[in-house]
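Question (not urgent): is this output format expected?
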Amino acid sequence: MSFSEHLVLWIHVAFVIFTIGPVTLAIMSTPRYIRKRDIRIVRYLTRMTFVFAIASLGVLIAGLALASMIGKEGKPWIIVSATLFVVAVLLLGLIYRDQRKAIKALESAASASAEAAGHNGEPDAAPAGEQAAAEASAEQASAAKTDSAAAASAHLANVERSRIALIGGVVSIIWLVVLVLMVWNS
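Got this back:
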């Protein structure tokens, strides 16, 4: 191999190490923090997923450049690996979408819970008679509605958490298959 081929190989390996590892960490950690309802960390992991998913395209570009330089671009294992890598990147797009949906659901659940907590406070002055009963009934209905909205949002966040875990597992398996193809045939 020439110097330029070695250089492209090292660039390819560096992209693998510094993009695939962090994006895998981000997608595998997201379900844990959705379960804990830590919106701040989920937002950070979502940004991390987006940035490293885009940067991981460098793996594909450097890999295809290396295959072209060493004359193996038409080999079936290169074509299969590149195709699987593109599928993995597309699945990362779905994971990013689901992370955004989970953030919205967690924010909605948090605001509904805060609103419900605000309704449970003591009134300043107790109105008399039928008006007091009507206001108490309306307040209970409003509290039940916000509790229901919080529960629905929490359920949606759990659904997204499950989707992220499932698709993240598929992406990891795809990357393992690509790794085996690269090591086996190199």
